[in-house]
Amino acid sequence: MSTVLCGCVGVPEESSRRAKSSIDLSSTPDSRVKSPPLASKRRFWSSFRLKSRGLRYRQKRKSQEKGDGCLSISQPDINTSRFSDEDDIHNSRGSNDFDHLFSSTDTASPEKGGPDRSVSDPDVSPIKGNHNKSSQRSRSQSAEEREDEGDSGIAVIETSQTIATDTGLRQRRHELMQHSFFHLDVWLKEGKDLVVRDSSGTSDPYVKFKIGDKQFYKSRTVYKCLNPKWDERFTIPIEDVFKPVSVKCYDYDRGVKDDRMGAAEINLSMLSLNSPTELKLELKDKKDVEYMGFILLQCTLVPKSSEEKEQFQQTRGSTLKKSVGSLESQARKLKMQIWSGIVNIVLVEGHDLMAMDDNGLSDPYVKFRLGQEKYKSKHKYKTLNPRWLEQFSLRIFDDQSHTLEISVYDHDLRSDDFMGRTSIDLSEIEKEKTHMIIKELEDGAGTIKLLLTISGTQGAETITDLVNYTTNTKERDDLYRSYGLVNSFKNLKDVGWLQVKVIRAQGLRSADIGGKSDPFCVLELVNARLQTQTEYKTLNPEWNKIFTFNVKDIHSVLEVTVYDEDRDKKAEFLGKVAIPILQMKRGVRRWYALKDKKLTGRSKGAILLEMDYIYNLVKAAVRTVNPREEKYMQAEPKFKISLMKRNINRVMQIISSIMEVGKFLQSCFEWESKARSITAFTVFLIITWFFEPYMLPVTLLILFLKNYFIKSAKEAFSVESREDLMSVDEEDDDDDDETSKQKKDEKTGVREKFQAAQEVCLQVQQGMDMVASLGERIKNTFNWSVPWLSLLAVIALSVGVVVLYFLPIRVLILLWGINKFTKKLRAPNAIPNNELLDYLSRVPSDSELIHYRELSPDVPNLGKKKRA
Q1: Comparison of pLDDT for 226 and 473, the residue scoring more
Q2: 109-123 pLDDT per residue, tens
Q3: Do 179-319 and 341-455 show the same overall fold?
Q4: Domain 341-455 CATH (choose: 2.60.120.10, 3.40.109.10, 1.10.1900.20, 2.60.40.150)
Q5: Which of these, 604, 471, 456, lies nearest to 543 by C-alpha position?
């Protein structure tokens, strides 16, 4: 049987007069408490005001009145004897005289009920009728007492309900403390009736989930919507279940800071374990009393064992085992590839953007945002059709948004003006393939053109993994059939198919402090760009990846570049190799020596590749005499004195060759050698008398055949000349350093003049290079530098001989003129071009031949497999 000692705490006379007591419950059926006389109570209150001490309750038992389960409704007799405050509040056994009155009750918590007073409750009636009279007497006495003590502040405390609640909370707390770690599985569904934060009458809401100051999740942004549907699932690790989860809603703003849209909290201790709980969180703000809507979500609190907690922390890289033998593996885990892919973006250009300045133009730049990854382009001055040509990469994380947000701004001195925005859902983009995307900005603010590729995926489950790859004979037969001669005039832009297997590299240069590197490989075919995963802490990485490209031009060049990943700065260059498609050996695994950035010198290491390609001959030939695909990302040309000298020498070599022909003819005219002059004069008479138009291509065919035999006999001489040309290229860097040093030493005014002179010299340099390259391309066409192109020229000349033999020249000129005059009418969007120059653009110049030249791998034991 529990006993309760109820007392009062005295307060000074100046204070509000209050008394503390508790509800008196009889514990026996026949118990009946008699109310004390009024005079005695008045004497008690007088003593209470003066002494300000604790009080002791006293009740007298009436033995002659008994009842089963009766509730005593009476005012207790209160003694004026003194107790310390501490005894009144905390001691429940102050007197054994009252034990029989509290058989089924406990002490009312002072924290729950505040100041306690005994009261006669008019709503409670006795169970048996023979107690009605005494109850009425008690109620009348209580009414009189309340008239005398109107300011006593009497309250009712439901002791049994409070005790039940406290017991449940203690049991709940004890149950939660049995587990040291939890997972909170959250299903963020939607928001309703959210507050307006934009001038357009809408908002761009997103939600953040935090515990303390640490953010665990950020939802995607739903634009222009007050009832957003996120439908996102994620998991939050919980170490302290008694800390609430803060849910904050924001309006994404194009300005500096996002606007608040309200907040709420999730009390994790009130969630049922392993059972989904539907929550409706009403958003509120301390500074704003308006209705802000609510968020609907589902939460499941899942307890985890200590082993699962350790496993989770290890996957996050937050804990390390302190053992000497595992230091290297743990360091690799710390730097492990936690991203699931790489988004490579080439920002090409914009069209018809909004005019934001007074001059009717803008200074636009673009901001990209993918989760926490951001990029900002350079701004272009005074244009509505900017051309940026910038390349960058953003990382994709599984637990972050996969929506690429694109915003365009106008650059100003003070605050930048917002011009427009759009977004791309990356989950709908096909991976391992480069896409040309033209996106319209909202509200007709213009268009943005970019190239986008998702690559860099890892894991054996991907289709690019070489370990699980098996050759499908049926698919290969379908490829041969699709690129067969029967389909030569279907989709002329789809010339062929290229497959590249990136197996491994060996002997790479160390780029990190520990003598290792974190290499990854990038493959580029014109504007298509794919990437392998990163292999950490090794100089002999094994990627084992397969990549496929759609070939638009059979004369394209595959560039394979190896980089060292660095999270804090730009990737570091390790080596590169350039391989034209027509020089690839199908289905053969070969080691390729890596070169430097200029592709002229040797770099450390080699890479093992296997390539295969299929193409349509007719489509490839048609594409050859059409304009080449523009490569957007190219090195910006700079003026270099050494390069200028080399271009001048190249042009002079061509001019000297032409002058040699002129000198030969001049010597024939001047009869410096009688035999030579007689022979030349005889040939001139015969050709002039018997000349026919078809003889001109025949002459060129003879020249092709002559050079074909010369090329076979003098291949060694050709290699020496290329090596000489390569040695000239290697001097460029020194001259660049000297020029940059001169520019740093000069003053601002002189520097501007110097830059203006450089621009003029750069134009001259590029003009010289164009002339020299054209001459070298013509020469390399006839000397069979690219056999496929030379053979195509031979076939074209042979057809020309037949046509010229049977058709008069005037008919050919007529057909040519009709084609030129009607081309714009037949194809209004056709790009004007010169077929001969387009053909020559596919022929490499001498410097390009050096870039494509293969070097012997300088790594020992390439056939053996090494491990880092």
Answers
A1: 226
A2: 434 344 343 333 434
A3: yes
A4: 2.60.40.150
A5: 456
Q: What is the DSSP secondary-structure string of 355-418?
A: P-STTS---EEEEEEETTEEEEPPP-SS-SS-EEEEEEEEEE-TTS--EEEEEEEE--SSSPEE
| Residue burial 90-107, b: 16+ Cβ < 10 Å; e: rest | eeeebeeebeebbeebbb
CATH class of 179-319: mainly beta
The full set of domain ranges for the chain reads: 38-166, 179-319, 341-455, 473-624, 661-832
User: What's the DSSP call for residue 96?
Assistant: G
Q: List the single range of 463-467, 644-648, 824-828 with lowest mean pLDDT.
A: 463-467
Q: Rounded CA gap, 543 and 564, in Å?
A: 14
Mean pLDDT of 487-498: 89
Residue 425, both tokens: 């859902």
Distance CA 500, CA 237 (A): 42
**What are the helix (H) ranges across 783-862?**
787-806, 809-826, 835-842, 846-852
Q: Does pLDDT of 653 surpass 70?
A: yes
Q: Is the pLDDT of residue 660 over 60?
A: yes
Question: Token pair 């040093």 is at which residue?
Answer: 741
CB distance 410 to 382 below 8 Å:
no
Q: What is the pLDDT of residues 176-189, one digit of tens each?
A: 777 778 888 999 99
How many whole angstroms separate alpha carbon 525 and alpha carbon 530?
9
Enumerate long-range contacts of 763-772, CB under 8 Å, 24 or more apart.
764/644, 765/637, 765/639, 765/640, 765/643, 765/644, 765/647, 766/637, 768/644, 768/647, 768/648, 768/650, 768/651, 769/643, 769/647, 769/650, 771/651, 771/654, 772/647, 772/650, 772/651, 772/653, 772/654, 772/845
Contacts 24+ apart (CB under 8 A), 44-51: 44/78, 44/79, 44/80, 45/149, 47/80, 48/8, 48/10, 48/17, 48/19, 48/80, 49/10, 49/13, 49/17, 50/13, 51/10, 51/80, 51/82
Task: Please give the structure tokens belonging to residue 184.
Answer: 């909170």
Which tokens in the block code for residue 789?
Answer: 């192109």
In terms of Cα–Cα distance, which of 638, 635, 649 is closest to 761? 638
CB atoms within 10 A of CB 248: 19
What are 383's two structure tokens?
A: 């244009």
Least confident of 588-592, 625-629, 827-831: 827-831
Share of the chain above pLDDT 90, in %: 22
State how far Cα 704 lies from the chain centre: 54
pTM: 0.58
In this model, does residue 484 exceed pLDDT 70? yes
Polymer length of the chain: 868
Reply yes or no on whether the pLDDT at 479 is more than 80: yes
Give the class (CATH, top level) of 473-624: mainly beta
Mean pLDDT of 571-578: 92
Are 531 and 395 in contact, with CB atoms under 8 Å apart? no
User: Residue 243's pLDDT is what?
Assistant: 87
What pLDDT does residue 823 have? 82
> What is the per-residue pLDDT for 326?
40
Distance CA 175, CA 184 (A): 17
Which tokens in the block code for residue 216? Answer: 């665990």
- Stated as kind and residue range, the H or E segment containing 763 is helix 748-782
d(CA 649, CA 656): 10
